[in-house]
Fold this protein.
Amino acid sequence: MRLLKLLPILFLFSCIDLIIQEEIYNSLYFTGGSWIEFAEIDSMKLESNDFTIQFWVSGGDVNTNEAPAMFSIIDPNDNITLAILRDMNQKNSITTIINSAIDKQEYNGLDWSDSDKFYLFSFNFSNTKGLNIYINDYKILNSSSLDVKGSTLNVGAIVNEDRTILENFWQGYIDEIRLWNTILTDSTIKFQSEHPDKLGDNYRYTDSLGIEIPTYIDSLIGIWRLNFQEPLTIIEDDSEHDNDGNIYSLSGFSVELSEKGAK
């Protein structure tokens, strides 16, 4: 994989130029050259090293010589802690980079060539159980635990904190991003993959006195629905934890609003 060491490139960045195409917007279509920046993972109100990141994504046509990256986590020394890339040569596989080691994972239920089919990617991080990666409700990988302290989260590219590494831009659709302050169970992930519009089978439980019982829903500390009604550069966190992100594009590139979405 080619990692570009760039000269200072802030002057090349432009606030995202969103191209309005449809009246109903459910996702963002990344055409290359754009990405979403979030804060360091351990600053987004995480209470432990057990957490879950989820993405609803879809593919489509690719016009690049680099494997597009869904997201990347880069440590303070500019090493890739974790990155997931869409494989350009096979429609049913992904390339994983874990602690800079590159591997390929295949899943017969995956078809990157179909832009209308969205998949729920879930990443369970745990010091005791390691990293588990799911496509819908199918576990495709179990790996050792990862240290994300001080690491930045970027969606749609491989990017480090000071942007001297900036490449492998995503080409495809992203419908929704979620951050949980807990490890989601297999049954929860299965339910979510079967019901894209629901986070759980019940939002709140109550006891015999009508008092709300805490559930895993209370651990949702970031949800970015990407359902824009107008062009924006800030990705607001609908969980009200103020973990907003920002969209950036290189000069000459843009992200489009799309009516496509998980169904």
In short: Confidence is low (pLDDT under 50) at residues 2-11. The longest helix spans residues 186-194. The first strand starts at residue 13 and ends at 15.
